[in-house]
Amino acid sequence: MCHRSSCGPAVPAVWIQASAVVGGATLASEKSGFLGRLFGKKSNTSEEPAQVVRKELPISQPTVGLCFNYQRGLALDSEYLSDVGLDLVLETLEQRKLRATFNCPAKLCETAPNRLKTISEAGHELAVLGYADESPRDLTDDALAQMILACRNAFLNRGFQPIGFRSPHSHWDERLFKDLVKHRFVYNAEHEHTKRPYVLAHGATPLFRIPVRTDDRMLRSRQEKRDLTVSKHHRVVRKAVQDRHFVTVCFHPWILAENQLHLEHWREWLDTAIHSGAKLAAMEDILPAKFRGTPPDDD
């Protein structure tokens, strides 16, 4: 497998200009070095966060959002295990007639377009998981704008029009508001403990926030932490059913494929959620009907 700094198409000139902000600084790792050259590194300046007036979406019944981060080697995960896990996940969802959201880095439009096509043709939602595992918090204003534009164009070039965006590692940055709305993203999904989706930015086409309660990374820890993670996954669903609210647990196909116990746990969790009486849905299916599907047309 090639190194990221040497594979893929040539870097557009506008990105090279954005990266000049970095100067001669040396970044800590090969990954951050690549992303710094690609998009430009943000200087350490603090900004006051935007004030958000929260308007929650009504939830008519307990709802479990189904989502997966499919990164296929872009987040120090295994390409092989990611593909094996994806096939197992798609097979399981098909058997249970469920629809899910797959958060995918835009670079997969270049490196694995057929895998994205497989997900889409199976009836699932594709959402954007950044471009190549960069942290939005580390990018300059211009570089952040270029990254969002690059994400939108990469998917469009493959015939996809995702309406959802998630920051890699849930590194949300308030500066994303403007560019997500500009490029017609309808929702943003990040790690949060809120119990219902809500409106992040108001307007003719609002930007919604869909909270992701937890994920599966601690399944890879020692037995004690793994048991606590398994218990937590079941507990948050029970709580959502009891209090009639929304919850999402995000899984990674490569983690599920890494260990048969991980896969068995996910399938057991999935069946428990089904039998709980909760609605299981892709992220976009949680939104009001008029905001689902392809992005709204420009005015």
Key terms for this structure?
299 residues, four-stranded mixed sheet, single chain, TIM Barrel, 10 helices, disordered N terminus, alpha/beta, six-stranded parallel sheet
Verbal overview:
40% of the residues are buried. Strands 1, 2, 3, 8, 9 and 10 form a six-stranded parallel β-sheet that branches. A four-stranded mixed β-sheet has the order 4-5-7-6. With 299 residues, it is α/β, with parallel strands linked by helices. It starts with 12 loop residues before the first helix and ends in an 18-residue tail after the last strand. It is built from ten helices and ten strands.
List the helices and strands and how they pair.
Layout: H1 13-19, H2 30-39, E1 63-69, H3 79-95, E2 101-104, H4 108-111, H5 113-121, E3 125-128, H6 141-156, E4 164-165, H7 176-182, E5 187-191, E6 198-201, E7 207-212, E8 214-215, H8 223-243, E9 246-251, H9 253-258, H10 260-275, E10 279-281
Parallel strand pairs: 1-2, 1-9, 1-10, 2-3, 4-5, 5-7, 8-9
Antiparallel strand pairs: 6-7
Helix pairs in contact: 1-2, 8-10
